[in-house]
Each structure stands twice: as C-alpha cells, then as structure tokens.
Amino acid sequence: MSSELCEVQYQPAVKCKKSICLSDTIPQPSYIRSGILRIRQVIICRNLSTSETSTALRPFYLIVHPDLFHQTPKERDVNEESLKKLHEYMRSLHEKGRAKPTQLKFYAHSDNSSKFTKVDFTLKSKNVRDTVLTVLKSCDLPLDYVTRIPEGPEKSPAGTRKDQGNSFYTGRQMSFDMQYYSHKLPNYSLMSFLDKFHKRAHEWNERNAVTQSQIKYLQEKIKSDIGLESLSWRSDWASLRFLPCLASFDRMVQQHKDYVIDVLKGRHLIFGDKTGVSFNGDVVINRSDAIDNWLKGLAIIPAYNNTLTRLPYMEWELSTLLANIKIVHRCTSVTHIVMADEYEMRLNRILNTLRRCQQEVDLRLQGKDLSNLEMVVESEAAPLTVSALGQFLTPCTIPGAILIQFVSKNTDEVENLLHEVRRLQEIEQDLHSDCIQRLKLNQLNKDDSISCAQMIKCCERLLYDAVFIESYLNGCNLKVTRYFSVLSDGEICIPWDWESDVS
Fold this sequence. Notes:
- The protein has five domains: 42 residues, no CATH class; 99 residues, no CATH class; 101 residues, no CATH class; 117 residues, no CATH class; 56 residues, no CATH class.
- 48% of the residues lie in helices and 15% in strands.
- It has a four-stranded mixed β-sheet with strand order 5-6-8-7, covered by helices on one side.
- One of its GO terms (cellular component) is mitochondrion.
C-alpha cells in the first residue's frame, strides 16, 4: 500500500442564525481551521483480472478437463464438480473480494501416459494471485506467467512525476517505457531461426503425435458408428482441442445413437465456431457447446434442406443475369465457414439489384459470353475487386450498374490473369511435391494470404538450400506465412521471403 498527501482548499462553514453549523458543534482540527484539508490518497494494489486469471489457469484446465476422463466416469464427475467450486470461488474473489474456504479434489492427467494422479488442496486465500499460485503449485505447473505480472504499482524514482490522477482510479502508475516501444523483434535468417527453435518444434511435434493418433482413432470410430462421410476440425483453436470435443461427441453418440444416425448418416460433419449447415451442405456444430446444445443444433438440421435446394437455382439465375459468368466459392481460411442461410441472403440481395439492370448488361457487355470467367459473392463488407486467382470478388450489396461496369472494364485483364494463374498453380503443385520429398516434411501448407507466385519463390529457395536445412526440417510440419513462429502443435511457420545465409 502506498499513500500520498494532496492539498485542496477548504472553505469553513458560514454561521447561520436559524441553523446549527457543524463547524460550531464539532471541534475542528488545526488543518481544517487553517482553511486547508489534507486528504489521504490510497492506491490499491493491483489484482489479477478475469482474463489474466483464465490465462494463468489454462495449463491446469488442460490436465483436469473432464473430457480427458471419458473412460473413467467417476474421476470425470469429481473433476466437473471441483471445477464448478473453483469457478465459484474465483468469481466470489473477483466480485466481492472474499470467499469461503473451499477444499478441492482433482484427478490430473499426464501428457506422457494414460495414467492420472489425485490432487487435493484447500483454497483459503482472499487474494486472486495467491489462489492461482496455489492451484498451479498443486500440480507442479509453471508459474512464469503469474510471476511476470506486477503485484502493484511501481514506486517512482525520485525526481520523476507520473499521472497521479489516473492511478487514484486504476491503482496503476501510468508511464511510458520508451525502451519497450523502441524494442525490435530479432531479424532471423532461416538458418538462425531453425538452429534456435528446431529442437522445440520437434519436441512439441512428438508430444502432439500421441494426441493426433488418439484423434485419428476417435474420428474413424465415430465415422464408422454413424456412417459419416467425413469428420473434420475447422476452428481458430489448436487441433489439440479436437480430442476432448471428439470424446464428448462419441459419448453423445453412444447415448443417442439412433437419433444421431438418422440426422448425420452420409453427411460431412465439421467442428467449427458456429452451428448449422454450410452453403455446400456440410453439418457444422460449435466446438465450445455442451452435449445438450449439440442435440438442439442437430434438431434444426433438416430445416436447412429447402435452403440447400434453392441455392443452385439462385446461382444459375445470377449467372444468367450476368452473361453466363460462372458462380464459384472462394477457398478462404479453413476457419471461415459460410452458412447456407447467410449465403442465400447474399444471393437474394445481388439478384434483386441485377434484375433491374438488364439494359445496362446489354449496353456494356454487348452480347459477350463470360462463361470462362468466375465470380464470388461476398458479404456486404467485402471490396469490389479481382482476386489474385483471377476471380471477381463482389459484395452482395453493390449497385448493379457499378458491378456491370466493373466487370466489363476488367474482362480482358481477368482472362489473361486466369491463364497465368493456371500455369502458376501447376508449377506450385510440382514444387510442393518436390519440397516434401526433398526435405522429408510431414506436411507443407501455406497461409491464405500467400499467392502462387510467392509460394513458388519460397519453394524454389527451400530446394536450393535443402542441403543446409533438411536436418532441421526432417519430419516437421511446415507452413509458409509472413512471419517466423513455432505453434503449440510443433508446426513451424516461416515467411515466404525468408533471408538465406547461403544463397
């Protein structure tokens, strides 16, 4: 706790004949009689925020999550009940600053085996930080994240001034650390980055291999049990979270097998961030929902059948209104799924505006056949542009006259671009196969923002330097992006224009 004295002018009470003034009845200290009131300003020590608490406890959640104990119902129930008590204790500390002492028991899962250990501890601290440390220490988990968070406002060196008014409300001394803002990220070459981080990537990749084998086993089991065509994961969360989702879904299948088969047999199922049916008929369920919500989501799947039937006719009409241009779907991020009802709304909007512009089509296009060109109907926030793949990207709310003018103006350019893209895609495919074989990679992927030309240049340089880097990348998953990184599942990310030490 730190305190300071600040001065404010105080006006003594004025005497009134028909009223009693407090200044007359209550003895006044000397500093009030002198016209100056000294108020003690208190700065409360900073506590962990809710988000910081969740982040700090994430390693603990990952080893006690009930879905990890689907084969041991007793331990799963114990962990579910203890997690509820832990959340209630934390919420009480955040909201009230106090909580009743609580005794908790967990079963912690080991990463390296199917064994688990029993953990008992009692929470009786009134401080969120100490409580989090108690939980982490009980399972011998790292404390680095919590210890890096300052416990309170730093003391200002003599002769320095900070924003005292703001610290009165936030409990933090506000200042700008110019050294922090002037800090620059290391400028790695590919060799220096791989030399520093390849061991970490291999360790995380090996640790992830066991989980991936369990994921593959459950995928095949569920597909076989209910007759799915495919089962995939498309979420911003790491694929490690796929395993508990599959375990929960498998438990739901065993409890409601006939119903699930009736809804999902012969369908493609995706665990994503939404619930419903995509524009191409894939069933999507939210990976963060509970089993009850999954069952409710499956109940509305048949309602999408009429929408899926209408979509091809709407695309055909749109193509007819715009000189037989081909309506396609853009291959965007794997996590971005366009739902059927959303796509129908887009088509409705652009159809309504083009139906009123057929004279403009005849005037601008003059009977041209655009069946060799491609157009993608995007959301209203998208720009009207031509993609790197030679496709017209069209927002659904664009006025028809503007769209027709843009298409007619760029027809020749897009035709040339399409021919070039097809040529580059063939080259990229050959280089992609050569890199996997030469560097002995497990997988080679690229980010959505990487064009064919950029990927080709990257692959050519990887093959040129293969003799120097193959020992680092043997058996790894490599992704071409715009930055250096090693993901939690061991995947290595490199920029497409990486610097070489040898070429």
